[in-house]
């Protein structure tokens, strides 16, 4: 994977496409990101074969099928995704299903562009997997494109990236290098996010946040996911919850459950956050950047929690502590009620 980073980097998307030898690129975005899609379409000039602006959260299979039809109709030999996790997830799905190489221009701080993890949702169930074919061939990070990102989206997407680093720190295949990247990524985001939320035009903070997202995403890309990601995948797929906000709400509660069994991860996070109580620091950061307090604030009904527990227990991810049903119920109850 090639990475281009810096203010104005989006001007180089045509160069990145040419490096891959692509001639007919499908531009992907959400409906709200039409202006960004138009920007890169103009920059690509004759290389842009068409656009698909139907990317949706959690990557529904029906959306992927519609994008496949457009890709076939325009004879696409690759795609360029500009936006956040929904659009990047769609690009991954097209790489997985059609083998289309992608160039990605992230405009949020979630960091998913750095992972080989894909996800597809059908009938309320989110299926995930890992495949190196879904990794972008080139990632173009331009902090200038994030200046219009609303404060609430900035904060929540940054917590999503921090969750990647937290789980990488106690993953069974973690390494000292991953720990170093995670510590730097969490510190960068914890420093930058409150500044970004306070002043969206703070270019230095925007750059630092994007760098932290890159590092945190790379951590998860090199390790395996744990209980936190499993819970968020089930909650998002089953209840169609906003992805980043779900991560921001759930993370402190899973950290409180897992970190006593992962002292090395706890030590790294205490240094990165400058705090002795990591779950409390994560809750404070989430509050400071506008993440809602509790899953009930996202519309989750209390009676939904049992179904979530059932699905998590049916296909668990690796975790420092194997959770029993009572453990899951306790985590979900606390995350549902909120704790601020």
Quick tags:
single chain, 340 residues, alpha/beta, Rossmann fold, Dehydroquinate synthase-like, alpha domain, 2 domains, six-stranded parallel β-sheet, two-stranded antiparallel ribbon, 13 helices, globular
Broad CATH class of the largest domain: Mainly Alpha
Strands of the biggest beta sheet: in what spatial order? 1-8-5-4-2-3
Report the count of strand segments: 8
Low-confidence stretches are none
> Looking at CATH, which topology of the largest domain would you report?
Dehydroquinate synthase-like, alpha domain
Mean pLDDT: 95
Domains (count): 2
Report strand %: 5-15%
| CATH level-two architecture of the largest domain | Up-down Bundle
Number of H/I helices:
13
- CATH level 4 superfamily of the largest domain: Dehydroquinate synthase-like - alpha domain
Order of helices and strands: EHEHEHEHEEEEHHHHHHHHH
Termini gap: 41 Å
Largest sheet geometry? 6 strands, parallel
Rg, Å, rounded: 19 Å
Helix- and strand-based class?
A: alpha/beta
Shape: globular
Domain Alcohol dehydrogenase iron-type/glycerol dehydrogenase GldA: 2-143
Keywords: NAD, Oxidoreductase
Pfam family, one: ADH_Fe_C
Domain Fe-containing alcohol dehydrogenase-like C-terminal: 156-336
């Amino acid at each position: 994977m090639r990475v281009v980073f810096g203010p104005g980097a989006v001007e180089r998307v045509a160069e990145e496409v040419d490096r891959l030898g692509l001639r007919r690129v499908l531009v992907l975005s959400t409906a709200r990101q039409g202006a960004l899609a138009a920007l890169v379409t103009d920059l690509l000039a004759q290389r842009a074969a068409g656009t698909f602006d139907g990317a949706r959260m959690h990557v529904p299979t029906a959306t992927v099928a519609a994008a496949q039809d457009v890709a076939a109709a325009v004879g696409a030999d690759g795609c360029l995704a500009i936006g956040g996790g929904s659009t990047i997830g769609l690009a991954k799905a097209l790489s997985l299903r059609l083998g289309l190489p992608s160039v990605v221009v992230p405009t949020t701080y979630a960091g998913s562009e750095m992972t080989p993890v894909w996800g597809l949702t059908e009938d309320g169930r989110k299926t995930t997997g890992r495949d190196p074919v879904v990794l972008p061939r080139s990632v173009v990070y331009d902090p200038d494109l994030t200046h219009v990102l609303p404060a609430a989206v900035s904060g929540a997407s940054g917590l999503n990236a921090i969750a990647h680093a937290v789980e990488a720190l106690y993953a069974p295949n973690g390494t000292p290098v991953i720990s170093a990247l995670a510590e730097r990524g969490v510190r960068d985001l914890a420093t930058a996010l409150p500044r970004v939320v306070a002043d969206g035009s703070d270019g230095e903070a925007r750059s630092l946040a994007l760098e932290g997202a890159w590092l945190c995403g790379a951590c998860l890309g090199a390790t395996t996911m744990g209980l936190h990601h499993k819970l968020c995948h089930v909650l998002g797929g089953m209840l169609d919850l906003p992805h980043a906000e779900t991560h921001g709400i759930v993370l402190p509660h899973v950290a409180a459950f897992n970190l006593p069994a992962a002292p090395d991860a706890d030590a790294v996070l205490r240094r990165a956050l400058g705090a002795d109580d990591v779950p409390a620091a994560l809750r404070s950061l989430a509050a400071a950047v506008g993440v809602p307090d509790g899953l009930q604030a996202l519309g989750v009904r209390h009676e939904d929690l049992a179904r979530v527990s059932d699905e998590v227990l049916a296909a668990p991810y690796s975790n420092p502590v194997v959770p029993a049903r009572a453990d899951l119920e306790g985590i979900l109850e606390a995350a549902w009620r909120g704790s601020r």
